[in-house]
User: What shape does this take?
Amino acid sequence: RNSSPMPNYYEPEIECASRETLREIQSQRLVEMVKRCYENVPLYKKRFDEMGLKPEDIRSIDDLTKLPFTTKQDLRDTYPFGLIAVPRDDLARVHASSGTTGKQTVVAYTQNDLDIWARSAARAIVGCGGTHEDFVHVSYGYGLFTGGLGLHDGAEKMGATVIPVSSGNTSRQVQILQDYGSDILACTPSYAMYIGETVREKGIDPKSLRLRIGIFGAEPWTEEMRREIEKALAIRAFDIYGLSEIAGPGVSCECEEQAGMHVQEDFFYPEIIDPVTGEQLPDGEEGELVFTCIGKEALPLIRYRTRDICSLTHEKCACGRTTVRMTKPKGRTDDMLIIRGINVFPSQIESVLLDLGMDPNYRMIVDRKNNLDTLEVQVEMNESMFSDTVRSLERVERTIADALHSTLNIAAKITLLEPKSIERSEGKAKRVIDRRKL
Ligand code: DLL
Assistant: This one.
């Protein structure tokens, strides 16, 4: 296919560099970026001036904490292109965040930015064991969402063959997996479950597929869910993370050790902060993930608060890479539910259900009655349970309620629903209906 040998996009001179080398690269890029922000982005100039901060005050990555945070609200207030640091005609592409909470935020890239992003996504695919011989089946949505084009460009960059299927038409997805011999599947974990379910319903043995690797992300998912997907599709499933504001998929990704996601920290410098005080937290402590885009031109965000909750480690990985790793984000500060004072992430409910051998098809309904929060968890029955007696179904409801109570300490009403009554997700799943906000 490729007449010339393709670069495989393992970049050990960066990915396995010493901490000192990485810090040098980061410091140099930070200094340049801060200067660019001050000169070209009115919001940053105003903020620096108000703080009495000069670009020259930032001399190395150690000075990072002197810099102000940037929030999603800043992007909204300057919608659509207010934080862009380059002339409009230097832009090569725009994307937008999925906008589940409020107005969409628009992001933009120069050609260099697209290259940085594609390199990150290429390193991610290679890190999961992908090679230039693989067929990469991309079932993330193509469009303003960064999932489709992000994995597409990454796969092209590392010399693989892309199958740009996009999301939807699940039956056809399965047909393509079978007929084209896709080696790698990239989609959201909830869509991977749905594709797995469809494979089973069609009576196809997943081992008969050529598929070997799954690269799943764009939403939180649990270890239990990983095992389910790996079984349903007979593959190894890897976690990939990213967000449009910083680039898109590939900001970080697991390697074959599956011991946290390696951050492409020569482009995206991560910190963990206490979401309340804004203080930087040490390795191992959980808090809000913050990124500074040290390599980007069009949207060089300074200390962008992602609202994702995880922790970092700078320990060298068994794979040989030295780049900092982040744990699986367990949720976002803004989709954490506080139910009668207890913090609950949808991913914790998913964990409990899967542990009990249920399928992860569920919905949480939060309401407030007589000033008291109520939680109902609707769980879909599988086909075999559907024929059970009413009494045994009541027993299942009680078992789930007890498990939720003992692991999360919350009381929930459990309602079993008929098989297939919860809509399947082709992109990011929506699990929570919070009626308290209405
Ligand atoms: O979801 C980019 C992406 C596409 C990542 C495909 C991975 C694969 P946004 O639409 O801007 O971009 O949403 C970003 O999604 O802040 C997290 O809350 C969540 N998220 C992304 N990846 C993961 C993951 C894309 N692996 C937001 N685990 C982020 C948990 C994730 N949450």
User: Anything to note?
Assistant: The two ends are 56 Å apart (CA to CA). Confidence is low (pLDDT under 50) at residues 1-5.
